[in-house]
Design a protein that fits this description.
There is one protein chain. The chain is built from seven helices and 14 strands. By secondary structure, the chain is an alpha+beta fold. A hairpin with a 2-residue loop joins β11 and β12. The longest helix is centred in the middle third of the chain and has 52 residues.
Length: 350
């Protein structure tokens, strides 16, 4: 076996280095920069943008059911009717509301007339009714305190003349103080009466405001959501749709007894959809902003990407498998005919 000594190896290395100086040095291949993927991914559930559960405001037998599950309804459509003694239809509620408005107007007129004809004492000038009560009470308390030392004198003693009593000066003073006390009581009662008349007018006006609100709600031709609650409470013999949508659940049958307060109908507005996240943690939610874009993919439609935007971020939290999570609502700007309430979704926040 041939051995190459250290000196020989050194000379050979130098020879190669010298020969290489005549050739161009190849350029180094740049290493591509790896960008970290900061996409936030969360799971969520698909929901209609607007839905509600309707409960009955009266108990009774179901006399009519005019729609079925899956049917579309318009705002104000009667879905079902009850046969109940204490309940009333929209027509009867409207008639009763009109009577209430008329009675409330009359009460206001009567209360205003009584107040206008009340003779307000001159020493109440510049005061409101409540201020006059406070001022007259101060005077009454002083008059009662001044008269207190003479309270033991009976009425007969006070009626005697000074010449008939040895203590004429005392009796005269007591009589004067008694008159001041009586006047203070009269003024205090006058102030109380004024305050009562003012309060009666205020209560009458409050009754009129409520009566007019109920009347307007029952007469609302658009059956808007703002007046739906009043209609439901007053026209309790009927269940009406508060907004356009689809009946997704209907638990009413003709002839069966239905109890008030129990949800029996669910209506959903499927014109637009939202996705609400279920597992977005506190670490990720701080990097999500309202209005930012999101991509939603439904598990049932894995090849379809739906665009949306962050609509709201909940201020409240929940716990999910030991994590603190926050619900984020994504308003979808796209939809698909195959979408169904409750579908599981994957949400990507970029």
């Amino acid at each position: 076996m041939k051995h190459i000594t250290f000196a020989t190896l050194t000379i050979f290395t130098l020879f190669l280095a010298a020969c290489g100086t005549a050739q161009a040095t190849p350029e180094a291949t740049p290493v591509p920069t790896v960008v970290a993927d900061d996409t936030i991914i969360a799971e969520g559930k698909l929901e209609p943008i607007h839905y509600t559960e309707l409960a009955l405001n009266a108990s009774g037998l179901v006399s009519e059911v005019l729609f079925a599950e899956g049917d579309e309804v318009k705002a104000g459509d009667v879905i079902a009717r009850l046969d109940a003694d204490q309940a009333q239809t929209l027509d009867s509620a409207q008639a009763k509301a009109a009577q209430e408005v008329t009675a409330a107007y009359q009460e206001v007129r009567d209360a205003q007339f009584e107040l206008d004809n009340f003779d307000v004492p001159s020493d109440f000038d510049g005061m409101t009714p409540s201020e006059s009560v406070e001022a007259m009470l101060v005077k009454l308390d002083k008059a009662r305190a001044d008269f207190e030392p003479y309270r033991h004198l009976n009425e007969k003693s006070l009626e005697l003349s000074e010449t008939e009593k040895k203590s004429g000066v005392i009796v005269g003073t007591a009589k004067n103080l008694k008159k001041v006390l009586d006047d203070a009581w009269a003024r205090y009662r006058k102030a109380i009466k004024w305050l009562e008349l003012e309060s009666t007018l205020q209560n009458a006006n409050a009754r009129l405001v409520l009566a007019q609100r109920d009347y307007d709600a029952l007469q609302d031709p658009s059956f808007s959501a703002d007046t739906a609650g009043t209609r439901a409470a007053l026209a309790s013999a009927e269940v009406r749709a508060p907004f356009p949508g689809v009946i997704t659940d209907l638990d009413l049958k003709v002839g069966e007894f239905a109890a008030s307060g129990t949800p029996v109908i669910t209506i959903a507005d499927n014109s637009q959809w939202v996705v609400k996240t279920t597992d977005l943690t506190e670490i990720d939610v701080v990097n999500v902003k309202e209005g930012e874009a999101a991509i939603v993919t439904l598990d049932a439609l894995p090849d379809v990407e739906l665009k949306g935007n962050v609509f709201s971020i909940s201020q409240n939290y929940a716990e999910n498998q030991g994590d603190i999570v926050y619900e984020v609502t994504i308003l979808l700007t796209e939809s698909n005919p195959a979408m169904r309430w409750g579908m599981t979704a994957e949400v990507k926040f970029e």
